[in-house]
Design goal:
By secondary structure, the chain is α+β, with helices and mostly antiparallel strands. Helix content is about 30%, strand content about 30%. Strands 18-14-11-12-13-26-25-24-19-22-21-20-23 form a 13-stranded antiparallel sheet. Strand 15 and strand 16 form a beta hairpin.
Length: about 550
């Protein structure tokens, strides 16, 4: 929201209101009070990033208080994530200078956000990404001091009798819930629910979902507004896409002598292209090579950390709620000192994808494989520039791909699974063939066109030789494929997860020719499975990547 709107007494908050909330979180100086019955991990991650972005370069001590529900049935149904509460309770560690306290009210249904005891946002949306960005919600932003004081008094009346929630209690509940999820009774309930869901999906729908246009929002204001860029002189060998990403000649200031080495991060053209293919769900038949089936709130994060030259890496991170993929590739830079991180939303990724498609069709990544991309972050406004030289011998022949972007928090290393781990190694070819035959058999049994969306992955026999089982369908008539595996280590009774089959196929399709097998790792909670590629002996081991898929 604008400064005038931010300080207005009462302002309507229509859907989608995620940008409004994130803008308020970035402004916080001292206190944040959250009241939400249902909280999902993706929303907590987005809020955490906004708080960290607001603290960048500033000394802030933020007191955070959360009122929510801690009802086991909410977690089993998927209305809330217990991992979201665990992440919130860890904010005192991940958000420097902050303190966090959580309390529970079993019959809570109110949704309130109070920032610095000066701004209150009251609405119908929960702390979930659908509640913040996709559902039809409505609320009010209140900055009138007397009204805010009354809201604070009501909040205090809820807070005082509410039950304290401590991290050990939440961790214990999480383990018990995992045991229930793995039980035979729960598997039968899930199978029954799947059958009922299939029947319900065949019923006629009444009405049409209301969609939102960001341009129509009167209050929305992302941290960086997308500028309308003019198209300037172009490389005659390249087509120009008139979208938020474009190709321009010459490149922006600083990409020609003498600043090209001082203001940019250099990365191999072929390594950058491989990394994009490893993490992004590219679909060459879709607009911008990104399918409409990808969640609107999916994002690509690029991050560079200021480290000694020999350890400099550019990180590319993709997250869409179904999988989390990260690639790290070596860079060269001798003078840039400031670490940075940005995100591209689906629209921006598509616009960049249109340009990359042109380069691919012209065999650019083959002909210029040994060349360097010069990556630069511009901050007024925030844009990401990826430049290269049309003539490698002429430092003044630079061409740049440019797209708007949003500042983000610096990510850590790939998240560590909770030990002890259950692991197994599977040959890439065996896994790929099993998926193909599983889908073919499913399609032959479901001629009505009902798509296969979930596949169950399990293994339970440790040893030098073992097997991974893929299955889908009802328990009474399931389709199963067993894949031979090696080097299986096991922690617990059985590693069993239900994962999105499209996300799994994207992981398998992303592999390079040097990947001969995958190391699958599951933590003790079976919340997610990580796919770590195992490379051929001669492969370039400076490129590091892995994927993680959540247990659905």
């Amino acid at each position: 929201m604008t400064n005038d709107e931010y300080h207005a007494s009462v302002v309507p908050v229509p859907s989608p209101w995620l940008d409004i909330l994130l803008d308020a979180l970035r402004r916080i100086q001292h206190t944040l009070l959250i009241v939400s019955p249902y909280i999902k991990q993706e929303a907590v991650t987005v809020m955490e990033q906004a708080l960290l972005a607001g603290m960048s370069g500033r000394n802030r001590n933020i007191e955070i208080r959360v009122i929510t529900r801690v009802n086991p049935e909410d977690f089993l149904s998927g209305a809330s994530d217990i991992s979201a509460l665990q992440q919130l309770l860890n904010w005192s560690t991940t958000i420097p200078g902050s303190t966090i306290e959580m309390r529970a009210i079993p019959n809570l249904h109110a949704k309130v956000w109070i920032c610095d005891r000066q701004l209150a946002i009251i609405g119908s949306g929960n702390a979930t990404l659908p509640g913040l960005s996709r559902n039809l919600e409505y609320g009010l932003a209140v900055a009138d001091p007397q009204l805010v004081e009354r809201i604070l008094n009501d909040w205090q009346q809820w807070w005082d009798p509410a039950h304290h929630v401590e991290a050990p209690v939440v961790d214990d509940l999480s383990q018990k819930l995992q045991a229930i999820k793995k039980s035979d009774d729960m598997r039968q309930i899930q199978a029954q629910n799947e059958r009922l869901t299939q029947q319900v999906r065949r019923l006629p729908r009444v009405g049409k979902a209301v969609t939102f246009s960001r341009k129509e929002k009167r209050l929305a204001s992302p941290i960086i507004k997308e500028p309308s860029f003019p198209i300037s002189l172009t490389d005659p060998n390249l087509n120009v896409i008139d979208k938020t990403a474009y190709i321009t000649l010459p490149a922006p200031n600083g990409l020609t002598e003498p600043d090209i080495s001082q203001e940019t991060i250099d990365v191999s053209v072929i390594a950058f292209w491989q990394a994009l293919n490893w993490v992004l769900p590219f679909d060459e038949t879709a607009p911008g090579m990104i399918s409409d089936s990808i969640a609107p709130d999916a994002y690509l994060k690029l991050s560079w950390k200021s480290t000694p030259i020999e350890h400099q890496m550019l990180q590319l991170i993709w997250a869409d709620g179904r999988r989390y993929s990260q690639a790290s590739l070596p860079t060269h830079n001798e003078t840039v000192k400031q670490s940075w991180a940005i995100t591209l939303n689906r629209k921006q990724i598509r616009a960049l994808g249109d340009v990359l498609r042109i380069l691919k069709e012209e065999d650019f990544f083959v002909k210029r494989a040994q060349q360097q991309f010069h990556v630069r972050l511009n901050t007024s406004p925030y844009t990401l520039s990826i430049a290269y030289l049309r003539n490698p011998m002429d430092r003044f022949s630079s061409v740049a791909m440019i797209t708007p972007c949003t500042a983000a928090s610096i990510p850590g290393n790939f998240q560590i699974l909770h030990p002890p781990l259950s692991c197994i190694t599977i040959a890439h070819e065996h896994l790929q063939n099993a998926l193909i035959t599983l889908k073919q058999e499913w399609e032959s049994m479901h001629t009505t066109g009902y798509p296969l969306t979930i596949v169950e992955l399990s293994f339970a026999t440790p040893g030098a030789t073992s097997s991974l089982t893929l299955s889908t369908g009802q328990i009474e008539a399931s389709i199963t494929r067993s894949i031979p595996g090696t080097d299986c280590t096991f922690a617990g009774s059985e590693a069993r997860l239900r994962i999105d089959i499209d996300a799994l196929q994207q992981v398998i399709a992303s592999r390079s020719e040097n990947v001969h097998s995958w190391r699958l790792c599951v933590d003790r909670y079976a919340d997610a499975v990580q796919f770590v590629p195992e490379l051929a002996v001669f492969a370039d081991t400076t490129l590091v990547w892995r994927h993680e898929m959540r247990n659905l």
